[in-house]
User: Fold these one by one.
Assistant:
Number 1:
Amino acid sequence: MPKAAKDNLAMEFSLRMGDNCLILGQQVAAWCGHAPVLEEDIALANTALDLIGQTKFWLGLAAELEGEGRSADDLAFLRDVRAFRNGLLVEQPNGDFGQTLMRQFLFDAWHYLVLTALLSSTEKRIAEIAEKAVKEVTYHLERSSDLVIRLGDGSAESHARMQTALDDLWRFTGELMTPDSVDEALAEIGVAPDLGRIEKQWAEHVRAVLQEATLTIPEGAYMQQGGKAGLHSEAFGHLLADMQFLQRAYPGATW
Amino acid sequence: MHAVSEQLTIDEIWSLLESVPDPEIPVISVVDLGIVRDVSRKGDEVTVTVTPTYSGCPATAVIAMEIEEALRRKGADRVRIEMQLSPAWTTQWITKQGREKLRAYGIAPPVEGAPCAGALKAPPVVACPRCASDNTERVSQFGSTPCKAHYRCKDCLEPFDYFKSF
Ligand SMILES: [Zn+2]
């Protein structure tokens, strides 16, 4: 494969990873000062901070591979809805604490497995970011798995909320593991993992945790697609408007 | 401009960096923390290679600035800070001296070899930095900064920070 074509695929992949981290980080950060208990407030803020830090690496690499003089900040703050490549899962609204936690758990399990596989990526810069990020995401997954079990197998109220969250969010998980032509080309040249393999490992971990949490996976759910192609939900426009307002209104503003 | 004879040696630069504190835990230096990976010089340009602790650590930019300033004060005009991601920082790089300083400051140093991969593992046994009791419990996996967890001693009843193994 010619270098330009490989760079282009690696750029697309970095955008996908970066956008997932950015959008989830932005949403989780909104909990700062609002979580049900202080410990969770701190944990959510730290998780958001990790994700935003990882975004900086991924979008920085995407900008470098693009080679058009844009920065990570330009990519985060100056792109429109259709240019975002994150999965639909991370753009689902925060809802209650149970929704936020279930979204985090379903994402963390995927994120951890993808990053682990990326350690052997043929693109050195991608492997290096994964090496850094996987250490943080290991803690994210440990925490979200643990809390899903505690709340799922908790009181009647917490169980009901966790089950509702799972029912609402399950249909957005398939997309993360359904390869499109970009994913297939990336797997072929060893830049990114085969998503079929990730799906098997993901299902194994997620099922084990949900079972221990006494939660039931919705059956025959239709899996929504579209995020990777830039087809996002209506709420996503509002999320971006909120996140991008300052840079759009005052271009180049800094602290 | 500084003549060659006035230039800091690599050893002098390392000992200078030993006096640059970590902005979040000022009792330990950036060298104790293990984030300075290399010091080199080409002509009159000094390059310090630094690795971040956590991706989103807000202290990283401050650390780079403080290193640059410390070197400038000693006459190094051209300082370059290089960020290196790989190999990723690990708490195993915290020096022995750094660990003792952490403990004396009231932060339990990382218990190395503590499992952190995957989920559902029991948290490591961490000795209370105040009374040395092992009878402690984890309150939360995240503490006042990303690198710390929040613990409580069941003997002296004091809460404390644990510098997580990473
Ligand atoms: Zn104690």
Number 2:
Amino acid sequence: MSGPTRIGSGLFEQSSAPVRFRFDGRIYSGRAGDTLASALLANGVQVVGRSFKYHRRRGIVTAGPEEPCALVTLIGPSGREPNRPATTVPLTEGLVAESQNRWPSLRFDVLSIFGALSRFLPAGFYYKTFMWPSFAWERVYEPLIRRAAGLGRVQPSRSPPASSAVTQHAHTDVLVVGAGPAGLSAAYVLGSAGLRVIVADQDAILGGGSALDPDWHAWRSALLGLLAELPTVRVWARTTVIGAYGHGVYGALQTLPVGPTPAGSQPTEKLHVIRAASTVLATGCVERLIALPGNDLPGVMLAGAALRYLVGHGISAGHRTLLFTNNDDAYATAIEYARRGSPIEAIVDVREYSPAADRARGAGLTVYASAKVEAILGDRAVRAVRVRNREGERLTLTVDCVLLSGGHTPATALAAQLGAELRWSSSMAAFIPDLSPSIGQVAGSAHGVCGLAAAVQDGISAAQRIAETLQLGELATPDFPPMPPDAPRADLEPCWEITGKGKAFVDLQHDVTTADIRLARREGYEHVEHMKRYTTHGMATDQGRIGGLVGNAVLATARGIDITEIGQPKARPFLETVPFGALAGEESGDRFKPKRRLPLHDWHTQHGATFVNAGLWLRPLVYSADTSWNTVMAEARHVRREAGITDVSSLGKIEVAGSDAGAFLDFIYANRMSSLAMGRCRYGLMLREDGIVLDDGTVARLGKDHFLLTTTTVNATVVLEHLEFHRQTLYPQADVTITDVGDHWAQFAVAGPLSRAVLAEVVEELDLSNETFPFMAAAGARIAKTPGRVFRISFSGELAYEVAVPARHALSVWSKILELGEPLGLKPYGLDALNTLRIEKGHVTGAELNGQTSANDLGLGRLCKTVGDYIGATLARRPGLQGGQRLELVGLRPTDSEQRLRNGTHLLDSENPTASLGYVTSCTPATEQVGWVGLALLSAGHSRVGQRLLAASPMHNEAYDVEIVSPHHLDPDNIRVRA
Amino acid sequence: MLRILCPHCGVRDETEFRYRGDATTARPAADSGETAFARYVYDRANPKGWHAEWWIHVAGCRAVLRVVRHTVTHEIHSVTLPQAPFDIPVDAR
Amino acid sequence: MSAPDPVSPLRFERTTGDVVEVTARRGRTRDVVYAGRARDLPLPAMGEAIWSDTFVAASTRPDRWWIIGPARAPAETAARVSGLLGTGAIVVDQSSGFETVDLVGAGWREALTQGCRLDLDPAIFTAGQAAATTIAQINVIMIPHPSGLLVLIPATYAQHFREWLTHLCGESHS
Ligand SMILES: [Zn+2]
């Protein structure tokens, strides 16, 4: 019998009742309180995955998020979630998981042939081998590599349900990362002083090292109890701080306990966005491996992980275990194994002496001092180790489990993101971070402090230093529960690599060996960042946490420099794998973006409208489920022949008031507004400062110092900001008030030859006759008994009005107009018909106001003021915007009236069709004529009116002749609008 | 994420603001000619270090703010209204 | 942060009120504030709100105020406010521009941490204050009062916001 097994109960066990789960199709049983990893170990499952490159058999190496090997895909009701470390997955009844990166099965992996070929698969192999011929990359190499080298597969279907994650915003005085003795102590001091504190710990079991040391259990429970009583302290377990984003902002991902309600109906993850005035990074350390031949065999585990499985879950990682260490901390595992009756074959320590070795010998254990493990032997799993003792003799010891401890590296990723300075600690053989006091403090073992009692003291002083930075004076230190003293200890002796025959891994997830590191250096990739990218050392889900420094040390040795000079690769978010769904939170599906609804949205719905998304708006496209040209053209022709009403409430509406309003608008618009008479409207054209058109709309003068501007729907917010920016930066002393009234006013266009007759039925206090209310007039009036405004403006090219009423009254007014108008021939029309009508008339919208067209290009140059300053005045006159080969607005129609047009179709010289001269921007079937009409932006277009060009759309396999005409297909002399 | 101290609203998340580019330049006088305007519209120092930028507090008080920010560290030196005097620190880094 | 109170579940009501946007013209702020004080329409400082029997006045922009009162005939409230504050004020009726929602129940602060980026701790943000900010990607005005929160939502976003609130309130009950 060999392999891991459960030999008793553990501290983290919640009950001994069985929890059933499925792994790779087989049903197993674990206990409440297990992780998936501990449950697999308890069932003797030793191989849980295949490695990335060589497809070597791999077991569970760690007990936390630093796990490089035991990555699984979880299969739940909401889909497949790949790349979860089994060491962090809480075991739940009915959990289903699969191993990854094996094909067709874990036991028999065809691609493990890569292992046999490994001398042909050095670092950079993919880059070197698959370079030529280039076509083969796409067709042959990439699919092969993707199949062979992938981690887990992302679910190909849609994202998980919207409810699977929520985002929550938090504010705190101090964020404490890590709930070990240092973090808890800092939080206790700060919270006792009334500061708001959030403690976040990635673990389900709080307490860090104090949770695994029986002598510290009383202290740990007492302190957690004291913290729970502090009203300003929040302690979050299972919450990983995944990144620091500057200015005291942190992201933290909390895994929520799965409750009894049906899975998928409640959030499983919470993303906290935390804003903190200061922080305590008590992030602890990560144990590191030792690079030596065979260090990746199933049965090799880090010593600290083994202690956790034993104390927390009652699991022994082997039946005959050997510990190979260079430090004191790892002895605790061996001593605890022996105490619980799990045989320890020997402890091999590279050091000559340490007090811990004396304690182990006192407990009856064999310690080889000044010795090393030269190789771990085995084929499918650990079988034996070859030890070289102090005297230089080689011994082969038969074991089924090897515990490694190469020392402890402070978890610096978060500190590094916060710009921490790193200093080398020779007693830990690791870099230790120091934060700028304005950002926070590092405390505990992450701060290079050894021992739990020392960590408590360090946490307390970190809290005091924070109080000092926040200028709170010295905080009273509350009474702490009694704690045991730290045992005497010796420093570690650095031990990065035991050289020998066989692969010695520094990155188990990416199969990076010490030989790969040296190869990278030989080939010129000797900077630590270059080596990382060349070898993939330290990448992907585990970020190489257990071997990162080891690989860097190997590089330093190869370069002949001290490790302190090698530097550290830049750390970036995230600290661990984060599901996309957790980042999206609730902002997915219907809640991805807010929806803006017209005041008449419900009316449009009830009358059969098909809606279209226009930015955030939902606008009625056509009043039919049938969105074909037939229904659209029926609506449009009805406007041309009788009358139609359409909802234009989405237009931007801005009031500009004050004695300087006219002058200000003269600066904003290219054409003059101060000369506008009261009760009149004017078309308005705005340029950007570079001379390109920004937006167009109308300006109505409602009073001497009172103007109302409309903007296009899409540019409403842009124009408002444009006005406010120039008002605040260039006209700070002017008497100008800008007020956004876009949502207050509902606005309807009533258009068509019968529109005056229709409106006469509902408009009071205003004579609509041509004499008193001519084209471009504006006035207040009562519309269907409601005080509002009437504008005689036309976007359709017909006799038309726009009426505006407060949106609260939109439904009653609209309904009344239709009720009284219908007998006269009034019908509603949608956005598509509106577009047809404006294209025929030659009015421009977003397709033509595309951020590249000038007023001249659009045939609007004559509107621009020739004297006085306005935005864009100077640069609109620059030579580059004048004539030449610029794309200018024209109209066009196919010579064959059977031929349809398409947006984006290119226009070419049919004699010499080698270069595009322009393209179709908008097109529609004509309302009154046969065939299609369109607008185009055409090189030197104004001079080409009357020419024939070739229109080509290769995507549709179309090429046909078009005639270039004026953009005003309909009523160029404005007779209709003035009727 | 930047946290910007709006002089009216207090500290707010960057997401409440709209960025509007370089705040070190001033619009030339109307008769300054094309070259001056071209410089105003197109020429940007793009400094690695301290820089003044316009940020509009669109979701709050709608004030146009001049934010002096370090483009490498994101440290914010000052947030002021457009007419207030401002200084751009000399970067010792 | 107050814990959700199981006795008074989070709920919200649409209130039909009139909303008026008042801006002091350049250099006339003092005139407008004096006029308001003299005529029973006291105008608060930036970031604050004043609750009286007839109106709630709140300021989330310098020299600007939201006046919220009971619904009257179209533009009547605006005309009345304009009459009270005099020619130094630009008064714009926004009654149809905003929907007002009253969010009540002890759990509103905790619930709104989903979607609202402000610090809602009662020691920081409480009755007598007002803030313009973003909730669930929508720009809103928040005016807390002793039993809850008044929210002004731009009218065309209101349905979306209410759907979001319904979802939120449902969640806080479960
Ligand atoms: Zn602000």
